[in-house]
Write a structure and sequence with these properties.
Layout: H1 3-10, H2 41-44, H3 59-65, H4 71-87, H5 90-94, H6 96-105, H7 112-125, H8 131-134, H9 138-149, H10 154-170, H11 172-176, H12 179-190, E1 191-195, E2 205-209, H13 219-242, E3 263-265, H14 268-272, E4 293-295, H15 304-307, H16 313-334, E5 347-348, H17 350-373, H18 378-394, E6 402-407, E7 419-422, H19 430-442, H20 454-469, H21 476-492, H22 496-510, H23 517-535, H24 546-562, H25 567-582, H26 586-599, H27 606-609, H28 612-621, H29 630-641, H30 647-660, H31 677-689, H32 693-699, E8 708-709, E9 717-719, H33 723-741, H34 746-760, E10 766-768, H35 769-782, H36 791-809, H37 816-819, H38 822-835, H39 837-845, H40 857-869, H41 874-879, H42 881-894, H43 902-916
Parallel strand pairs: 3-4, 5-6, 9-10
Antiparallel strand pairs: 1-2, 6-7, 8-9
């Protein structure tokens, strides 16, 4: 077989037959398929149209443009973001993460216009974003800020300070949590590292100030800009670590070294298993202080950066060793010795003064941070050993410093020329510069180093004294720092001559008029602290300061003159007066006695003008008054009953006067002539009546409703007092009754009260309902078998009882104001009627039906029915059965021939049940009226 034939046999053609199905090829592809529909309703919906700005760009479009290579596009996107977010603020919460990440990324953009737009956007967003909202994204923002601060481009560094300003203003706590990185950035902004020449190895790295001629501002101005932000950052760090606002000056100094602020770290797991004891009050004694700053977890666990920051004494020392030499170099450049004209001495240019102020402020804040770690004064000794010599040489060399300002006139003036003058402007404060320096230096001195530091301490003492004597223009911040330095000087040199000189200088400023309220408050707190320090002195024989005694003697008069204009200042005065009075300060007690009539005046005295908290202290001062004359007791009585102080304070005042009286039951001899017995009883009676004699006289001319409740069967008409006045009077009455009941001779006390009632109340036609009720209440609590009532008092009490009972029975139930008086007045009337049968009989005798009008008959019938039902009056009703029977008979006679009303049926029924059958037994029947 040939090769050609073999080839044909391999590829033989299949012959197809008609009607047969074509066989399936082995390599055939199956092209059949099935489809199923997928229904997604949410995806089929059209997306809501996102808000757009004026260029029709939404938030996604604007954020995408932030990645464009063109600086103009990125700047336009930032401006568009600000426009969009200002119109639709709700977008901020939805896209906060993307907005912050894109905005922070351009902090280091090479184009200045983009950076300016980013800063403006951040300034717009920061007030609208809360700290807890931005906290998750703040590490990213802080990282971009740190990158900008350390960037090689000078413009980016300058703009980073503006970003830092915004973050310090809005998020100081979040920023200070990353203090270790930022502290290093601040140092690198003004200096660079240099290998020490004395060491061949690289173990010690020193820092020196850097000079960059490519900057748009001078090196000194650049350092000033950096130090201003660094000072703000340290201030935020101090505020956050101390847990309170910056308390400079006298508030910062501690009276004793053991009063330190320590942090208490609480582990709740250990506390729950009783493995950790929490001491709430660190310092006990007579004046415990709460100085603990509680933290739920230690600062180390918050973030890794804090561990490397200033949270420990060692880290703080390391940073101080770096920054202090740089600050001294900045000071040397700006000091007067470096000026072109050395003849000017200690006069400073404004820019130099600002730089020096920032240097001292930073050192001052670092000193405050050291005090938080200086439990054993090791840090203070370390600072003195390392920096006192440099500070004396550079800082105190030209002390004190003054500001030199050049005044240039545009037009020539024959009478004025360009000159140098010593003045101060809004941006610089040469006095604050000197005070900050004084504060830093005196913190390095102590009583043990007084001899070594006498030269520069004398300079500071002289400056402080002269500033205080001419301190009429001191503001609050300056005075606070000045008083802090003064207090420290008094602690360093504790001899009477030096201390008296400083106190006299402060008192010279205190005596000036028209001082601002914060300034006056600071001076007052300073003197109060000096006085407390003197009182707590352990010396047996204390040499009191004459200036301090003169200041104390003037406090009561200042309190009386101040009135209600400055409640905070008045409260501070009261606290100081109370402290001195409790220590029996003779000069103050004499002044307080002379001014008491003005302080406790019931119309415009300090007591009635101040809020309740201050009123309580003023009431307590009554206990310390050497003498309580008649006019003062009269004023105090009016204060109790006028309602301008609470009933509780009135009760406290009455209790204090009772303790001062001869009836307090003291076993030892009390001070002579403190409260006269006659004056004490006059005070109690005046307070019991609740109205002065002039007010009672003026009430006699009032007639008719709605202020008067009157009946034809009683000569006493009732003046209806307001509910608040009534409740206040009733509360005071109960206290007066308690004081009267504690007097040993009950009968004599009752006779005095009876004479007062007969002299001032009997014979009046109109009596306040609270007064009538108070008199009945006092009678019911003071009456006993030894008391003898006069006939006039019997009649007066009977008239008061019927007038009050008539008022209660005719009271409209809808009159909510007077309904609340019912229980108190009803109880006092029933008590007197049950205790004095004569009063009960006289009241029944006054019920002459023939004199009563027809409208009053149902009231009389209801009264008789209630009296018959009352268990305490059952025996009296039986005794007066004939009299009651005659009254009922007269009523039946007048109502004969008429349709018998329900009240008349009830009266007839009660009379037959309780009196006609003479029931036995004292069982009381509950009465509802």
């Amino acid at each position: 077989m040939t090769k050609k034939r073999k080839h044909q046999e391999d590829f033989q053609k299949v012959k197809l037959k008609v009607g047969k199905k074509k066989p399936r090829l082995e390599n055939a592809t199956d092209t059949n398929f099935k489809t199923k529909a997928i229904y997604l309703p949410e995806q089929l919906k059209e997306d809501g149209i996102l808000p757009t700005n004026n260029r029709k760009l939404n938030i996604k479009d604007l954020l995408s443009q932030m990645h464009h290579y063109s600086a103009g596009v990125k700047q336009s996107a930032l401006l568009g973001l600000k426009e969009l977010l200002s119109q639709y603020p709700f977008i901020i919460d939805a896209h906060l993460s993307n907005i912050l990440s894109e905005m922070a990324a351009v902090f280091t953009d090479k184009d200045s216009g983009v950076r300016v737009a980013a800063i403006r956007l951040l300034q717009f967003l920061a007030p609208k974003i809360r700290a807890e909202q931005i906290a998750p994204f703040f590490p990213l923002v802080s990282a971009h800020l740190s990158s900008a601060m350390t960037h090689i481009n000078e413009g980016i560094q300058e703009d980073s300070l503006k970003v830092l300003d915004i973050l310090l203003e809005e998020y100081p706590v979040l920023l200070t949590n990353r203090c270790s990185i930022l502290l290093k950035n601040f140092v690198e902004l003004i200096s660079h590292q240099q290998l020490s020449k004395n060491l061949k190895s690289r173990e010690k790295i020193s820092w020196m100030l850097s000079v960059n001629p490519n900057r748009r501002v001078t090196s000194q101005q650049w350092r000033l800009n950096v130090l201003i932000r660094f000072k703000k950052f340290l201030q935020a760090l101090v505020d956050g670590s101390s847990g309170s606002e910056d308390d400079e000056g006298i508030q910062e100094q501690k009276e004793n070294s053991q009063f330190m602020r320590n942090s208490v770290c609480i582990s709740w797991n250990e506390h729950a298993s009783n493995q950790q004891h929490i001491q709430l009050y660190e310092n006990g004694g007579s004046q415990p202080r709460i100085n603990s700053a509680f933290r739920l977890r230690s600062l180390v666990s918050v973030t890794d950066s804090v561990e490397k920051g200033l949270s420990s004494a060692e880290n703080l020392k390391g940073f101080i060793e770096i920054i202090i030499p740089l600050l001294i170099e900045c000071w040397i450049e700006a000091s007067p010795a470096q000026l072109a004209a050395p003849i000017l001495g200690n006069l400073l240019e404004p820019e130099s003064q600002q730089l020096m102020q920032q240097v001292l402020s930073i050192i001052y804040l670092l000193w405050k941070l050291t005090k938080q770690h200086d439990e054993t004064h090791k840090m203070e000794a370390w600072l003195r050993m390392n920096y006192l010599v440099d500070f004396k040489h550079h800082f105190m060399r030209h002390f004190p410093y003054s500001l030199q300002e050049t005044i240039k006139h545009k037009k020539r003036d024959p009478y004025k020329s360009t000159k140098y003058c010593m003045t101060s402007s809004n941006s610089v404060d040469h006095l604050l510069l000197n005070l900050t320096l004084c504060d830093i230096m005196v913190s390095l001195a102590s009583a043990s180093t007084l001899q070594m530091d006498s030269d520069w301490l004398g300079m500071i003492r002289k400056f402080v004294t002269e500033t205080l004597q001419d301190g009429c223009r001191l503001n609050c911040k300056q005075l606070n720092r000045l008083l802090g330095v003064t207090w420290r000087l008094m602690q360093i040199q504790r001899n009477k001559v030096a201390t008296e000189t400083l106190i006299k200088a402060v008192y010279t400023l205190y005596q000036q008029r028209n001082l601002l309220f914060p300034v006056r408050m600071l001076l007052l707190k300073f003197f109060s602290r000096v006085y407390q320090k003197e009182e707590l002195s352990t010396q047996r024989i204390r040499s009191r300061s004459k200036v301090l005694s003169r200041w104390l003697a003037g406090l009561p008069q200042q309190l009386a003159l101040l009135g209600s204009r400055k409640p905070e200042l008045s409260n501070q005065l009261i606290e100081t007066i109370h402290s001195a009075a409790s220590h029996s300060n003779k000069e103050l007690l004499q002044s307080l006695q002379a001014t008491a009539s003005r302080i406790y005046d019931p119309l415009d005295g300090t007591l009635v003008l101040l809020p309740a908290e201050s009123q309580q202290r003023l009431v307590q001062l009554v206990y310390f008054l050497p003498c309580l004359p008649t006019d003062l007791l009269s004023s105090l009585s009016r204060c109790c009953i006028m309602g301008r102080m609470s009933s509780d304070l009135a009760a406290t005042l009455i209790g204090i006067l009772h303790v001062r009286s001869s009836f307090a039951g003291w076993k030892c001899q009390v001070q002579d002539s403190s409260v006269n017995d006659v004056d004490y009883f006059s005070f109690l009676f005046s307070t019991l009546t609740g109205f002065s004699q002039e007010e009672l006289t003026s009430l006699q001319s009032i007639k008719g409703k709605p202020h008067i409740s009157q009946t034809q069967l009683s000569p006493v008409h009732l003046y209806l007092t307001d509910l608040d006045q009534f409740l206040h009077h009733w509360a005071v009455t109960e206290v007066v009754c308690h004081s009267l009941s504690t007097i040993p001779s009950r009968s004599q006390c009752f006779d005095i009260l009876q004479n007062g009632i007969c002299k001032y109340l009997v014979g009046l036609a109109v009596i306040p309902d609270s007064t009538a009720g108070s008199v009945l209440c006092a009678m019911s609590k003071l009456l006993d078998q030894a008391c003898i009532l006069s006939e006039n008092l019997h009649k007066f009490l009977a008239s008061c009882c019927y007038s009050l009972l008539y008022f209660l029975l005719t009271l409209d139930k809808e009159d909510a104001e007077h309904v609340r008086k019912r229980d108190m007045l009803w109880g006092s009337c029933i008590s007197v009627l049950a205790l004095v049968p004569r009063v009960f009989r006289l009241m029944l005798q006054s019920l002459q039906v023939s004199r009563a009008c027809r409208e009053e008959l149902p009231v009389i019938g209801q009264l008789l029915r209630l009296l018959m039902q009352h268990g305490q009056l059952r025996s009296h009703m039986v005794t007066s059965e004939l009299l009651v029977q005659q009254i009922v008979k007269d009523i039946m006679t007048l109502k004969s021939g008429e349709v018998q009303e329900q009240w008349l049926t009830d009266l007839h029924y009660c009379f037959n049940i309780y009196l006609a059958t003479h029931p036995q037994g004292p069982g009381a029947i509950s009465t509802e009226y």
